[in-house]
Design goal:
40 residues; mainly alpha; 1 helix
């Protein structure tokens, strides 16, 4: 019986989106305070 996370679409999309989300989080973490309105 297949479970929800066994879908090839979910595996492929998560394999692509998770690293992009991590890169975006690192960008915001390191460069967010130097942009407009980044008063930390």
């Amino acid at each position: 019986m297949k479970q929800m996370h066994d879908s090839i679409i979910v595996q492929t999309m998560s394999r692509l989106l998770i690293p992009l989300a991590q890169l975006f989080a690192l960008y915001v973490l390191f460069f967010g305070q130097y942009g407009p309105g980044g008063d930390l």
